Amino acid sequence: MEKILKYENNDLVTVIEAKIQIASHNAIFRSRLNYLDEELRKGRNQSPLSDEEIEKEIIDSSVFVNNLVEFREVLRQIAIICGESEIWIEDTLAHENAHANEAEVQGLDFRGYIALFVKDEFGKITGIQPACIIRTPKSFSHSDLLKSNEEVTLAPEKYGNELSDYDRKDLSI
Fold first, then answer.
1. What residues does each domain of the chain span?
2. Distance CA 108, CA 158 (A)
3. Could you count the other beta carbons within 10 Å of the beta carbon of residue 16?
4. pLDDT tens for each residue of 140-160
């Protein structure tokens, strides 16, 4: 395993450590996350929950940051917790940045990067899912939404990265 680089900005390190503690304490149940994913797939006006309500619930169970410098520190700390390597950090950073870049190309509202903490029915953390928070403008038609979401989901392949299992599920492939 490669050594993970130490970040020297102690204020950022401390802030991210605190955010990780809060997110792990507020981890979302896997069953609830599956439900929210299904509600998002239904699209606007088909779900009893608004996109904003779903986004808030996901962010409440996540470490949320606005830029790549902060997201790299989130990934560095998660890599230490989960026993991942520097290569994992760089690959994950590139993967999620590809989604963010394509979202902006597609005219979507890129909101930030997250590390979503997921727990099982017993309350044990079973996963930490890096992702982007992206909001579709209300002016988009349903077909525009589907097309742009597909392009965003496929973006890592355009940048030479692989799709994640979550990406494949989102595309149903």
1. 10-161
2. 18
3. 24
4. 888 888 899 899 999 999 988
